[in-house]
Amino acid sequence: MADAPREGKLARCPNFIQLIDMASESVGGKILFATDDFFAPAENLIKSDSPRFKEHEYTEFGKWMDGWETRRKRMPGHDWCVIKLGIQGVIRGFDVDISHFTGDYAPRISIQAAHLEGDEGAQMPQRGERTGTAATPQELAAVAELKSNDWDYLVPMTELEPGKPASGHNYFLVNSHQRWTHIRLNIFPDGGIARLRVYGIGQRDWTATDPKEPLDLVAIAFGGACVGFSNAHFGHPNKMIGPLRPPLFQLSASESHTFDSLTLELQDVITHARLTISPDGGVGRLRLRGFPSSICLLRPREQPIMRFSVKTGFRSNL
Q1: Which domain holds residue 144?
Q2: Given 4, 115, 263, 266, which residue has the most CB atoms within 10 angstroms?
């Protein structure tokens, strides 16, 4: 069994929640396995929206809950699930959200992680509709190949605090610089979790990229991150470099604007970019398309190789 780390639980809302949720279904996160999905399936853990509560809605298995909920354990052991991250990279923190699970949330959790190469973990059976079911012998045999019980601990066994019924966030700081691809969430011994957010910064293998195709070098999924700003009253700048499209507002205010680089200096390797808006207002997305440094230095310098794309996506405040 891997050693437990020194990372700890945070009492206040941390800065890492401004990063991307690497496990979200919206970026390709996927539930590979769960020991039990009797009351509600584990797929709910990685929904991109906030958990909801429907007071008078029931299923044939009990109260409808927007999360993952297992039945009470009547044998030794505990429930757990395995998640394949949609964006692989460095994890900065977790949010284990037990909103609306006031009396049946999981009392304790731990979280493990692994970096699996190639197609490891790709042979798991398709899950399909899971409510009212438990893991089959075939699924148990397949998940055993991952040896997830020996994965590294990013969060040791810790008690969860319920908080308010509609806001049951439990934050955990992670101090790891490794690149992770899979997560194992353990609940002790059973119960419900509404959402699991895995916040971090993506890492990409740039050596496998096409040298003829410019890439979005600032994308948070590839390792980009905002390191400073003058004002973030209505939204953090990290959202500009996220993978999702911004919501549509005014017609003209939702146009994309593309600019080629104007100076030869931008054909050298750059590490930082500064976006200035005058005097204020909003920008939906920022894309900086170019080439990684190992490719950039080998390309001819006749034409600009950096292209900026800005999508406003918000009403101008001029």
Answers
A1: 9-202
A2: 266
